[in-house]
Design goal:
The chain is an alpha/beta fold. The chain has 4 helices and 5 strands.
Length: 103
């Protein structure tokens, strides 16, 4: 799983693939609980049509504000800078259902 920084976010959103942003925080218990599952989900992808990026909300204020993040973990799926869908909470089934049609 790749990490978003304020310096690389512009290059990330310019990619021509589906992008799943995993908004998280080091102090968030549910975020830390689901993190290994998200990592495993990303490792299991056999295509480059979807990339998963971890976004630490404490280091990426601008992106969080633009996406309207109010709680973590939150997962937002984008394609060509447009939101395709989102879900929240530490439920790996919801995240899998969100990305399944696109990978």
């Amino acid at each position: 799983m790749l990490e978003v920084t304020p310096e690389n976010v512009k290059d990330i959103v310019e990619q021509d693939c589906y992008i799943l942003f995993y908004f998280t925080a080091t102090w968030c218990g549910p975020c830390q609980k689901i993190k290994p599952m998200i990592q495993k989900l990303g490792d299991g992808l056999t295509t480059d049509t979807l990339r998963i990026y971890m976004v630490d909300i404490d280091e990426n204020d601008d992106l969080c504000e633009k996406c309207g993040i109010t709680s973590v973990p939150t997962f937002m799926l984008f394609k060509n800078k447009e939101e395709v869908g989102q879900c929240g909470g530490a439920n790996i089934e919801k995240v899998a259902d969100l990305i399944k049609p696109y990978c």
